[in-house]
Amino acid sequence: MIIIFRKALSFIKRSYLLQMSYKFEFFLRLFFMFFNILTYYFVAKLIGTAGQAYLAPYGGDYFSFVLIGIAFSGYLMVSLRGFSESVRDEQMMGTLEAMLVTPTDASAIITLSTLWNFIFASFRVLLYLAIGVLLGVSLAGANVLGALIILALTIVCFSSIGILSASFIMIFKKGDPINMLFMSTSELFGGVYFPVAVLPTWLQTVSHLLPITYSLNGMGGDRLSG
């Protein structure tokens, strides 16, 4: 257990140092994240109460709805693509083969190399919520424990798909197009940017096949109020 913990810290430190070596890209990502939040904030102002019938289960406020959607969907996207991206990055840097000949199992390498992505995703969620509070979103009625339980179960579900995608890359040395299709479909039909109820009935069938739909619906009662 101590050895695994030390290896995890080593992977996190390595990923952090690599990320900080591209400081401009790091701060640029934060800037566009803030820009993205402002975009949805003003879109919510434009919509006003027009979609209140669809947003009633989520507190009736579009900005609160989409804020939580884009914040926590970041975890799900990391679960899906984080493993494969880490493996691909190691391939591009020529370090994957060197790590595979070490005593560390391939499964541990894939898992530990993604820890920094989840840490950064957590930082982004906290930043999303902090900016949301500054823009008038209330945290008073949030069921944090319930949201965390649902989030943890969803990450496990999505990570299984992400690990399969990473395995695909390790074997065939190429990206997995199925993973990209699944991510795009989940974002569009999973209730991240708008309630599933807005969609036509036949498209809601697609939504009901996606794990992210049930995850965000589970957080529906815990979504923040404006």
Automatic annotation (TrEMBL):
Residues annotated as domain ABC-2 type transporter transmembrane: 11-219
TM spans (from-to): 21-42, 62-83, 125-142, 149-172, 192-216
Principal cellular location given in the protein's record: membrane
Keyword Transmembrane helix: yes
Keywords from the UniProt entry: Membrane, Transmembrane, Transmembrane helix
Membrane topology recorded in Swiss-Prot or TrEMBL: Multi-pass membrane protein
Subcellular locations according to the entry: Membrane
Pfam family, one: ABC2_membrane
Protein name: ABC transporter permease
Lineage: Archaea, Methanobacteriati, Methanobacteriota, Stenosarchaea group, Methanomicrobia
